[in-house]
Design a protein that fits this description.
The structure holds two protein chains of two kinds. By secondary structure, chain A is α/β, with parallel strands linked by helices. Chain A is built from 19 helices and 34 strands. In chain A, helix 18 packs parallel to helix 19. Classes of the chains: A alpha/beta, B mainly alpha. At the A-B interface, helix 13 and helix 17 of A face helix 1 and helix 3 of B.
Chain lengths: 633, 88
């Protein structure tokens, strides 16, 4: 077997430069050395990040759960993003479906952020305030985020298509003082107003002191102030430098039980981790133009934003991926001379199935040097197709997530790319396989402290945070993925080890689905499970198992269930198939076991069959999975 | 024609409109794209479903609004396709 791509000129990469700087001559040696705390201090020095205070101690404590990095260091995340590059360099390019194009130079971006920060401060916004946003992927949103974060406020954003209930569920626990919102968004060429919805959301957030309109349509919301009005303030003289662990971003993640977790990420950990990933693994630098296909509600938005700190231009695009043409994203890459295009297996598979072969289109993609893919597993077939369809360049798979706001695995300029594999472990992260089976597959854990470990969860005394990531293996971060580390230093992800769903690249907690369906007539119990399905976008599909109070599951009820999930959740919450069981697989302690059901649906023996009170249900499910076809739904 | 129309409506119900497909698709001429019936990603899913269900292969160069942007166009395309053996 040959790699899909092999490096040719890696010696000029920043990774090679850093390896020379620290005197490590091989990838293996550099990886091993990077697990010492010294790596992080050396990287901060080498990267030229703007910090003040002492780099020592690098770390206080040895436990992953509680260790703190750089307690004597102060920095501004925003200052570091804006420090790189010459005034005339383009910092941001904003495009939308209609072809509208907006650019901001580094100087223009700095000025707008300074003015907005001053305007927010004049309205009483302080360090530690929580700013929530419902926003489009535009230049305005980046200015809004950086303006808030410059003051030490915490930013949390979602995309405009979420329902009012979901927005409230996410925002209410944060007790935000500022809401920044769009009043409309465009999708498939049609405008979709959200001002009325946002007025309701604002009314139901009693902690709010300020509503900022990100566009004209949002000015309909009573009391909303235009962002341009705030930007009339005299620019902030300097960005306050705050402790390394100053809260920066709050992102949301759903589990198998309970409400979504509101995960708090710190400014220093986020900055250092992202700059490390961008510069050492992605070789991003001044002159690069990064476009990552994301909404503002996905952690990859925060991740791509940090690329400003590496001097790269960030290209933003708002709207549908396939409007006005099916090759809209590839056309954007050509027109904007994008050098790194970030996307997902779902999109690449769509291109394959639709016959969209970028190199055969009349597009100049000569600027493109890498394609990055994340959100779910890039299967060998799609990986190989993408490599041949785009051209002679690496298609790198990335894997990490919301929980760490970064990557455990990604590419590296000095490493070959193998089909269906993640090229390298992220430097500085002590990634291991816990309890591997005979096939080498086990739990993905991180066994040493790392700076980008979240600070905690909103509204939690530490108990839920510990339960979520450490209770299974105290002293290690358990991520919730099955992983295999190969002898050549690459990795393969084998799906979630818990019940979390990944539907076409969208992570969904089964608890969200159960909450929506709770109380629906005749539904006694439900279970949502992800089943491997190679032909489906993203390589899996969502199966909903139901137990009825009486009768048989018929087509009208199936459609009612799907409609409820689409309206109160999203299209990603809608199952591909719905099957009826006499009971759900349940442990002796009375807990639903999604894991047992998933094993059976994937054709494997249930790993916890002996722990179930009703293992015979698994046989019923196996028979159903064998005899029922998708068409029957 | 009615049987084929129903197969497509059922697929639209299962995947996008959940019981409202017959109302959303007002007539055989309305544009699926402009009428919000399907987006481009949805078209690809529909084509994959047709290929799997009827055991046929659709040339991706023919996957254009000209052939697929309304119920009438889809039915006309399929019924004139030499490999089509599904309901009529």
């Amino acid at each position: 077997m040959k790699p899909l791509w092999e490096p040719t000129s890696a010696s000029s990469s920043q990774l090679a430069e850093f390896a020379r700087f620290v005197g490590q001559s091989s990838w293996e040696a550099l990886s091993a050395w990077s697990l010492s705390p010294e790596f992080w201090a050396t990287f901060v020095r080498w990267s030229g990040l703007v910090v003040e205070g002492a780099l020592e101690p690098v770390r206080v404590g040895h436990e992953v759960e509680t260790a703190r990095f750089f307690p004597s260091l102060r920095l501004s995340y925003v200052e570091n993003l804006l420090a790189a590059g010459a005034d005339s360099d383009v910092a941001l390019v904003g495009r939308d479906e209609s072809g509208t194009r907006v650019t901001l130079t580094r100087a223009e971006l700095r000025d707008r952020v300074r003015r907005l920060a001053a305007g927010l401060r004049a309205r009483g916004v302080l360090s530690g305030d929580r700013v929530v946003a419902v926003a489009r992927n535009t230049v305005e949103t980046v200015v809004a985020c950086l303006g808030a974060c410059a003051l030490g406020a915490t930013w949390s954003s979602t995309s405009p298509d979420l329902g009012a209930g979901s927005l409230h569920d996410r925002f209410a626990p944060l007790a935000p003082t500022v809401l920044m919102t769009a009043g409309a968004y465009a999708y498939q060429g049609a405008g979709r107003p959200i001002a009325d919805k946002m007025a309701v959301v604002a009314t139901n957030l009693p902690s709010l002191r300020l509503v900022v309109a990100l566009d004209e349509a949002a000015l309909q919301i009573e009391g909303a102030v235009a962002m341009a009005e705030l930007e009339r303030a005299e620019p902030l003289a300097a960005f306050p430098r705050l402790p390394f662990d100053q809260p920066l971003f709050i992102v949301f993640s759903s589990g198998t039980t309970g409400p979504p977790k509101c995960i708090v990420h710190g400014a220093g950990g986020t900055l250092v981790e992202h700059v490390k990933e961008h510069r050492l693994h992605g070789d991003l630098r001044s002159g690069d133009r990064l476009y990552f296909q994301t909404s503002v509600g996905w952690m990859m938005w925060n991740w791509q934003l940090s690329a400003l700190a590496s001097g790269a231009t960030v290209v933003l695009r708002d709207g549908s991926v396939s409007f006005p043409d099916d090759d809209a994203l590839w056309r954007l890459c050509a027109e904007e001379r994008v050098t790194v295009f970030g996307t997902s297996p779902t999109y690449l598979q769509y291109c394959r199935d639709a016959g969209i072969v970028p190199r055969q289109r009349n597009l100049d993609l000569s600027s493109l040097r890498e394609v990055w893919s994340t959100g779910s597993i890039l299967s060998p077939a799609v990986h190989a197709w993408a490599t041949s369809a785009v051209g002679d360049l690496p298609v790198q798979s990335l894997s990490g997530g919301t929980d760490i706001l970064g990557c455990f695995f990604l590419g590296a300029p000095t490493r070959p790319v193998w089909s269906g594999e993640l090229s390298s472990v992220s430097l500085g992260l002590d990634v291991r396989v816990a309890e591997p089976g005979p096939d080498g597959i086990g739990e993905l854990v991180c066994a040493s402290p790392f700076p980008s470990r979240p600070l905690g969860l909103v509204g939690d005394d530490g108990g839920r945070f510990f339960d979520a990531y450490f209770s299974q293996r105290p002293g290690m971060w358990t991520h919730g993925d099955f992983v295999e580390l190969t002898s050549r230093g690459t990795a393969k992800i084998h799906g979630r080890s818990d019940g979390i769903l990944n539907v076409r690249g969208v992570r969904i907690g089964p608890a969200e689905i159960y909450a929506i369906l709770e109380g629906m007539p005749n539904l006694a119990a439900t279970m949502a499970v992800e089943q491997r399905a190679a032909d489906e976008p993203g390589g899996s599909r969502l199966v909903l198992l139901v137990v009825l109070a009486e009768g048989t599951l018929d087509r009208p009820l199936m459609l009612r269930i799907k409609k409820e999930l689409s309206q109160r959740g999203s299209m990603a919450h809608v199952p591909s198939v719905i099957w009826q069981l006499s009971a759900l697989p349940t442990t002796r302690s009375g807990k639903r076991s999604e894991r047992a059901a998933r094993d059976v649906l994937d054709g494997k023996p249930a790993s916890n069959r002996d722990a179930l009170s009703n293992p015979e249900v698994l046989d019923e499910l196996a028979a159903l999975a064998t005899t029922t076809t998708t068409a029957a739904t | 024609m009615q049987a084929l129309r129903q197969v497509i409506l059922d697929w639209l119900d299962d995947n996008y409109h959940f019981g409202d497909a017959a109302k959303v698709v007002r007539d055989d001429q309305m544009s699926f794209l402009q009428g919000g019936v399907l987006d481009s990603l949805g078209f690809v899913q529909l084509v994959l479903f047709i290929e799997k269900t009827f055991g046929m292969k659709i040339n991706r160069k023919e996957l254009s609004p000209k052939n697929f942007d309304s119920m009438g166009k889809i039915m006309a395309y399929l019924l004139s396709h030499p490999d089509y053996v599904g309901p009529r």
